[in-house]
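Reproducibility note. Readers wishing to regenerate the assembly model reported in the main text can use the exact inputs given here. Chain order matters: entities are listed in the order in which they were concatenated for prediction.
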Amino acid sequence: MNSVVSVTDFYFKYLRSDLVLKNINLEIEKGSFTVIIGPSGAGKTTLCKAITGIVPYYTGGDYAGDIKVLGETTKGKKVSDLAMKVGLMLEDYESQLVSLTAGEEVAFSLLNHGFPPEEAEERTRKALEDVGLPGRESYQLDELSGGQRQRLALASLLAVHPEIIVLDEPVSAMDPDGGESLYKLLGKIREEYGTTFIVVEHRVEFVLPYATNLLAIKNGEVAAQGRCEDVIPRVYEDTDLRPLLPDLWQIKCNLEKKTAQKFALWKSEKEAVAELQAKGFGRGVRA
Amino acid sequence: MKLNAFTWIIVTLAVTAWVFILPLEAVATILVLQLVLLLYIKRSKTMLAAIGGLGVFTGMMILLQLLFGSPLDVSLFGGLRMLVMTLAFLCMLATTRIQSIAKALVDRFHLPVEYAFMLTAALRFVPNFLEDSTITLDAQSCRGYSNRGNAIKRLLSYVVVIRPLVMRAVAKSETLALSMELRGFGANTYKNMPKEPFTLVDFVVLAIVIVLSTYPFWKKLIGA
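Running the prediction on these inputs yields the following structure tokens for the assembly.
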């Protein structure tokens, strides 16, 4: 497997806290779309921060084990240097925006890393175009809607061309249409650039069409990880984690259990209905 | 005609010095020029409100000086000086992008980048802070907060709004600091920004500043 992130025997605790992450061993495949699920307080955000080097090098705390990003250990690396390889969008993306206009926001990282102004300008233009905000360089941040500001935060990550993008609950404050549209955009970027995505998500129904891998965390430990089709049955068996699966996958697992049949990894209700009808599960089944 | 941020900073600093060395007529002329410039740049309600606010504040300053026993002419000239100084800053902020001012402060005045960035960050977070204060006020009102009663009672009860508001601001500033760290904020931040060249107008304005700033010297020379 060609892995871009490799975590080995990783333990971590914040200053004056109990262990937040315990015995984490995982591999993130290049070009995959990995969804991290788990109950609140399970350590999902801390794991994201660990992958980007913020934990423990920015926050402090005690750790053991090693994290490798694109084959290099994060030990001794500057958080900003790692950010050129792994982009992170925090849950509070609004506070992550530091400039006054959209163009300056996207160019901020580039100029800080010594890109010449002409190249920064070109990359800014392209990144804004990629996220559906073409020609908005001169827009003030308060002229953009919440959804557009989120796309802007994404554009500022894309501009530095990171190989991995980590998003912490990106649609937590969005309406269903906004959530669908953001994930559609992420799917498009992944197809176009082969970017590896790692997403913490509670509303997994939004990621169904794009998710390739699933990582379930419980009490700071990895409960299950791997390709979605392999992991879902194991997550379904865990009564604490089961409610985190989208309804469609819960139905699939339940049917598989009851009928002893195997079903495909449904990515939409339409797919589910088509397969169920094809297998003769009654004419009344509708999406 | 657009002046470089560096020129604006020099003009602003010079005006704050001139009000103490130039005669009353000259200071009054500067005031008229400032008002003309401000209304030429932006004749909006906000601008008029800003000028009006400064006028009211100046009136209060004059009144205070009179109350403390200063003669009328001294109080009026003191108020005029203050008004001209503050309007000089208003002119600079109305005509120049805050990022350009920050860049000029770092490049030309060697201000540490962290302090220069505070200018941008403060401006960036004012709308967020106002939004947060409305949200907090609404949330606390739902929990029984009321701003009725006398001034002291209202002030004390406002603590329930201030406390969560400060906590939110601290949390946001932590995220901002982390974001800046992630994006490599540091010495390069202003260094790599596109340069704003000096034009002939800048040189002319700077020459005028030098001539006016050395006014006492010229006065003595001409008088001799």
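We highlight two features of this model. The mean pLDDT of chain B is 89. The longest helix of chain B spans residues 113-142.
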